[in-house]
Structure formats: C-alpha cells, structure tokens
Amino acid sequence: MATNQPLSGCRVVVTRARKQAGALSSSLKELGCEVMEIPFIEIHKPSSYKPLDTALRNLAEYDWLILTSVNGVEAVFERMKKLKVAGSVLAQLKIAAIGPATKSAIEKPGLTVAATPNEYVAESVVNMLQTQVKGKRVLLVRAKIARDVIPRELRKAGAIVDVIEAYETVAPKSSERKLRAVLKGDRKPHAITFTSSSTVKNFVGLLGLQSARAAMKKRAPNHGVHTASIGPVTSATLREFGLPVDIEAKSYDIPGLVAAIVEYRKNMR
Q1: C-alpha pair distances (Å), 60 with each of 75, 86, 256
Q2: Contact at 8 Å (CB) between 12 and 228?
Q3: Final residue belonging to a domain, choices 124, 149, 170
Q4: Interatomic CA distance for residues 182 and 266, integer angstroms
Q5: Are 30 and 106 found together in one domain?
Q6: pTM value?
Q7: pLDDT interval class at 120 (50, 70, 90)
Q8: Which residue, among 253, 260, 256, has the nearest Cα to 196 in the 3D structure?
Q9: In what order do the strands lie in the sheet containing 11-14?
C-alpha cells in the first residue's frame, strides 16, 4: 500500500448494514485507509407485511410514491413480485427519491424518478414537494422508526399521506463485543462513521451512554476517536446524546462523507 495516499495510516470503523457497507469501505480503502467493518444496523423484515401489501395492491389510488432508502425500494420490489403486482403500475405514479442511491435503485428496472432533492434529508423532500401535493394521495414507504417530518409537513400542505413500514433496523448483538474490542485495543480507530440517526442511537445502545461518551473524549483535537457524520440530521442526533461532531460531510452522501474524512485527515497532519 502506498504511503502517500490521502488516508494512509488512517483507521476508520464503517458502521453501515453489512450488505450496504461496500461502497463506503471500498472508497476508503482506495485512499489507503484501514477499514474496520462493525455494523451498527441490521435490516429486519417488518412484523407484518399486510400494510405494505395492501398499499401495493392499491397503488393506482396514489399520485405520489416517496422512497427514503434503498432498503425501502428493495422491499417494495420484492413484495410486488410476490403479489404479482405489475411494475407498470409504478410507472403511472410520480416517484420521489431522497437521494442518489435510492434514485439509482428505483431506476434500475427502468422506472423514472420525478423528483430528488438537492440535499438528501427529509426537510429537502418537503421543500421539493409541498407545492405539488395539495389534494394528492401520497404513499411514503420507510423504516419502522423514522422521523415524522415528511408526513407531518406534507399533510400541512394538503396531502393525504399513508405511511407504511417496509422494514426495521436493529443493532446486531455481535457488534458490541467487536466494538468494545477495537476501542480498547492498541490500534484504536481514528474515526467512526455515522451514516444515519439510527447508527448513532445503536452505537449508544451497544455501549451505553456513559461508555459512548467516554470513548469519544479526546486529550487534544488530533487525538482519540473522532465521529464522522454524513450530515446535519445525523450530527444533531450525536449532539442530542452529548457526543461530539468532529467531521461532517458537506454533501450528505457517501462520497461527501469520504471527502470530509480526507479533508479532516489532511488538516490533522
């Protein structure tokens, strides 16, 4: 490995769900980083598919479909296939995606995304759609636990919004042992990535609040373990738990997070 790479000698914990860690991990490795994959999230099926199945059988009644993650896209496609609901029904809706990865997943089978916000957060989805949804029926497919910004604000704008849970996220029990081991070891990570509010909450859940705060204390700015947040919503969750925000992406996606880590590392030298 070349020692002149931007992240050579840098150790980073990637906390995304195992099947989604690849893009972030590979981007960091290409820049010379040593990656430690410890998922803070596992994707589980919902307790029942009945609400999602009912909505998918009645897709023709909706004007808009909002998808906020790749997991939501995959759940919709899987259930439609299971129910033998024709993909052409989706083509009759206006589809909004929260960000580029979600947009790409929607477009893979040939669908068109009508709207993607400039910033990949719920508030930007609201700003983008609130003048277009008055009197319209909107189907929002998301995780079991999620912020209520989109349904609340679109209802204020006059939309009829159905919120359907397509999956849930839980903290993998096996990650607690791995996380404690790397934080106590001789080769502690320089940074832990947080790609959603759920990763923050599960980090605290795995360690306990006091241990989580202790793990992020630093003798000096350039010492210790740093938090690397994908954007302002995730950063706000870190602050809610009394955790520092050391690195924050300017573009709220994986390339933006990698760029922020590179920039921070450069300034530390």
Answers
A1: 18, 11, 37
A2: yes
A3: 170
A4: 24
A5: no
A6: 0.77
A7: low
A8: 253
A9: 34-37, 11-14, 191-194, 226-229, 247-248
